[in-house]
Amino acid sequence: MAALGELQGAGLIEKDTNDDVLWTWSYPVVTADFRDVLLYKCPLTSDCPYTQFIFGQHKHKWFYIATQDVANHPTLTKVKAFSLVLLCKDFNPEKYKALSLILYSTFMRTGSPSSMLESYLSVLTKGSCPSENNGTFLVQDFDVRKAYAESNLSELIEMFGMEAILIYTAMLLKRRIVVYHSNVQELLAFTRSLPALVWHRQNWSIMSPYVHLKTQELESLNSILLMGFTDAAVENHTELYDLYVNLPANEIMIATHAKSIFGMGKLHKDIAQTMVKCMEEGIVCENKRINKQSEIIRRNIRTKSVYNI
Q1: How high is the pLDDT of residue 4?
Q2: For the chain, how far is it from start to end, CA to CA, in angstroms?
Q3: What pTM was computed for the model?
Q4: Given this model, what pLDDT does residue 239 score?
């Protein structure tokens, strides 16, 4: 059975009964810089509900954060809530959410991080991890293509209609896109879908879906083309983007310096009309949901030869 070589580390952040938030455990080592980033992103120090599962990328490493409220828990008597962090090479939220559930359930049962380490090492070396309450975690059950297929292109087209061609063009031409939404879950769901517009590349590493306006993060975005922010002030940072997508307002804005890049011709209009048509036909017949996204992707692949990209 294949081992999970993509796992690179794990950490535990706890909020104690005094409301202090501390990094309490890691394996093998998490750098001070990365700890700082994870501390201000985790729901224990932000406005995110504890139940949310958060993911992102920083310095070419993916992080996944699962948070659990354990106030008045019989085993963790000095802890109000905790966040389990996994650091990995690959993008696969569904895989690491399932693994996180097994690991933090073990921690809640025993109260010891070392009990999680046994399961973590089993997955790392054997590709599997038994769990008393949640079945067995198997690496082979989580093909990365399934993670890519979680993209919701029809929602994108329904939201922006013909203007969705601007996002499509930006992705094809490898222009920088910033997406804004105050709700981190809405932001993550939308942003993770956009690389599917250029399905032929199969590349989700161009994305950093949860970024803060902090120097240590902004300086590490050189190779990132797609960024997500929950801070509306990002709109003023035009040096970060060519295209700005404001999800709550359903607006797409082209940066002044990029106006010439997005000149729309007949080809763009034809593609946009086809995308909208596929979406509308999908609404009429619910069981065509997969087919409508596949049609968009097929159009994408045919267009690849036109752009020579």
Answers
A1: 62
A2: 37
A3: 0.88
A4: 96
* Residue 248 confidence (pLDDT): 97
The 3-class SS string of the chain reads: CCCCCCEEEEEEEEEECCCCEEEEEEECCCCHHHHHHHHHHCCCCCCCCCCCEEEEEECCEEEEEEEEECCCCCCCCCEEEEEEEEEECCCCHHHHHHHHHHHHHHHHHHCCHHHHHHHHHHHHHHCEEEECCCEEEEHHHCCHHHHHCCCCHHHHHHHHHHHHHHHHHHHHCCCCEEEECCCHHHHHHHHCCHHHHHHHHCCCCCEEEEECCCHHHHCCCCCCCEEEECCHHHHHCHHHCCEEEECCCCEEEECHHHHHHHCCCHHHHHHHHHHHHHHHHHHHCHHHHHHHHHHHHHHHHHHHHHHCC
Q: What is the pLDDT of residue 244?
A: 98
Count CB-CB contacts under 10 A for residue 254. 17
User: Residue 302 pLDDT more than 80?
Assistant: no
State pLDDT tens for residues 242-299.
999 999 999 999 999 999 888 777 666 677 667 767 666 665 333 344 344 445 544 5
On average, the pLDDT of the chain sits at: 86
CB–CB of 80/91 below 8 Å? Answer: no
Please enumerate in sequence order all residues whose Cβ is within 8 A of that of 266, keeping only pairs 6 or more positions apart, or say none. none
Strand partners, 14: 22, 82
Distance (Å, whole) CA 298 – CA 194: 15
Distance CA 42, CA 60 (A): 19
Contact 176, 240 (CB under 8 A): yes
Nearest Cα neighbor of 297 from 218, 197, 228, 168 is 197
Are 171 and 195 in contact by the 8 Å Cβ rule? The answer is yes
